[in-house]
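User: Batch of two.

Assistant: Item 1 of 2:
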Amino acid sequence: MGSRVTRLIRNFNLENRAHREISKTKPKAAPRHPASSSSLQEDIAEIHQKNDPLLSMLKDVYVESKDPDPQAEAVPEVKKVEEEMQRRALKYSLPGEPYGFCDVTDVPKGKLSLVEALTALNNHKRLPKTWTPEKLAQEYSLDPKDAKALTEFFFPFDIKIIPPKAEETKQIKDS
C-alpha cells in the first residue's frame, strides 16, 4: 500500500515538470584558451629548431669521469657476508613440531627467537640477581644495551589480581 502512495506522489505532474526542466536555459560553456592551431605549430617548430649559442656552449663542456676502485667495493660486501654468517645455535626451542617452528636451528648473533626471549625474561623475573642484563647479553650474544632494554621494558606473564574493596561484594567459591 505504501509503495502505491509513493508512486502516485512521484508520478504526479511528471510531464509538466519534465517540460519545465527541458525548457530552462542552459549555462554557457567556459571560453576556450585563445590558442590557434597555427601558433601551436609555430611553438612545435621552435622547440625542434637548433639553437646555435646553446650548442656552442654545450660543446665547451668537458666531463671527466673515473670508475671507482673495484677493490674498495669488494671489501664491504665481504664484511657484510661475514657478519651475516655469524650465527649461534638455539639455546631453547619448542618440543616437537606443534607450531611449525622446528626448521629454525640457529639465529644471528644479537637476535633472539621467541622461545629464547620468553625463557630469558622468565629467568630474569624469577632470579633477577642471577640473570642480570649483562649475563643475558653474554649468554645470548646480545648487545648489553639491548639486554638492559629487554629486561626493563618487557614483562612476561605479569598477572595482577586486584582484591575487592569491600567484603560485601559477592565472590565465587569452590563447590
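Item 2 of 2:
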Amino acid sequence: MARLLLVLALCLLPAIVSAARPERNPFVVQGRVYCDTCRAGFETTKTVHIAGAKVRVECRDRKSMDLVYSKEGSTDSRGSYSIFVNEDHEDQLCDAVLVSSPRKDCSTPSEGREHARVVLTHSNGIASGSRYANAMGFMKDEAEPGCTEILQQYQAYENED
C-alpha cells in the first residue's frame, strides 16, 4: 500500500507542480529601426539603420487603453532589436514603439512609422514565439544629396503602371 501511494505521488506531483506554475513560453519581438535619409516616409536605397536606438514594447488594456506592460530595449550595430516578453498578452493591444534615436540629425519619429503592432499570445495558432514588427523609422532633419533622383525613380515606376 505504501508503494502504491509513493508511485501515485511521484506520478501526480509533477502534474500538480506544472499546473500551479504559470506558462513560461516567452516571446521575442524583433524588428529594425532606420533613418529616413530622404524624408520619403518609407525606406529607400539611401536608408541607413540606426545603432543604439531605444525601442519599447507596450501593451494596453483593450477596453480602458491603460498601459499594463512595458519593456525597453535598444538596437544593435545593424539597427536590429530583440525584446523578450515572458507573459501572454492575449487580451491586450501590444505595439513596438520608438523611444529615442542617438542621432541628433535623425531623431524625429516618421509619421506612421513610429510604432508597429505585434500580437503577443499563443492563442492565435502561431506556434513560434518569434514576433516580427514592421520596421520603424526616424526622419532626418534634411534630405541627403541624391535623394531627388532616387525619389524620381520611384515615381517613374509608378508611371509605368
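Residues 77 and 99 are 17 Å apart (CA to CA).
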